[in-house]
Amino acid sequence: MTKISIKETQNPTILKFEFEDFITENESYEFKNIDEAKESPLAQQLFYLPFVKTVYISGNFIGIERFSIVEWDDVKDAVAEQIEKFIDNGGTIINIQENKPKKQPITVYGETTPNPSALKFVVSRMLTKTAIEFKNIDQTASSPLAKELFKFPYVKEIFIDENYISVTKYEVNNWEEITLELRTFIKQYIENGGTVLDESLIQTIEKDEKTKDANFDSLDEISQKIINILEEYVKPAVAADGGNIAFDSYEESTKTVKVILQGACSGCPSSTFTLKSGIENMLKSMLNDEKINVEAINA
Question: Locate the Scaffold protein Nfu/NifU N-terminal domain: which residues (predicted)?
Fold first, then answer.
């Protein structure tokens, strides 16, 4: 017997109907009407309910957005029962496409970071050579994986670098409640050939890197030294914690170094301590200048 759990979301018009096991392999689906839902017999049936506006299928849940003609308290139990009966009677949730790419077995494990709102998911293969940060789903045209991850209602920000993905969550959920769901989704997505990063972005990155190299040569000597110190001594350390630090500027008149915090470093409660006690002191020592001051422009 199928057992559905009903969970509220941050959006009062959307409820999640959760299964005990995952119901999709590596993809998320969004259907706005019955014609769009040809891949999902279950979604098509749900659209016969007059209050169903949108159906989302991902991971271990079905999300339903309602029109305002009803309240969820009046219909949610009946909807859950209908889904349970549909599954128990052998109904199909998603029609699996043929000729899917073969799985490429990988391992994914979660690592805690100094930022309690961020978790680092380490993958047993290279994902990208350049750090990429996404603040919202509108920025994810170049990363299908990031786009899918943002469909989880608790995902706030995503940072991808080398062989890991840092996910920053909203405070609505504890990591104990969502880590397995995210880890399993990422693993299945990559194993089934899902695209982590679109090739068009890689081309853009290569152009940006050439621009950065040209800009580096035009910088003053102190700025170049600061960048080299950050690259050699700081970035490897923060990458181990699921984050990144990027040089923004150096103002000679005030001795101020401005940096950008990314990934788990962004919004981390200990970032100020790290900047002052770690990075700032290192720069003071290595540049032999006690007046150096480090600021994060997005702290």
Answer: 4-90, 108-193
With beta carbons less than 8 A apart as the criterion, state whether 243 and 261 touch: yes
Residue 93 belongs to some domain of the structure: no
Phi and psi at residue 87, to the nearest 5° = -70, -45
227: containing domain: 219-296
**Does the model's pTM come out above 0.70?**
no
> Does residue 35 lie within any of the structural domains?
yes
| Of 110-114, 193-197, 224-228, 295-299, minimum mean pLDDT range | 295-299
Q: Which residue has the higher pLDDT, 213 or 52?
A: 52
Query: Residue 224 to residues 169, 230, 260, 292, 293: CA-CA distances in angstroms?
Result: 35, 10, 16, 15, 16
Has residue 82 been placed in a domain? Answer: yes
DSSP string for residues in 200-265: HHHHHHHHHHHHHHHHHHHS-HHHHHHHHHIIIIIHHHHHHTTEEEEEEEEETTTTEEEEEEEETT
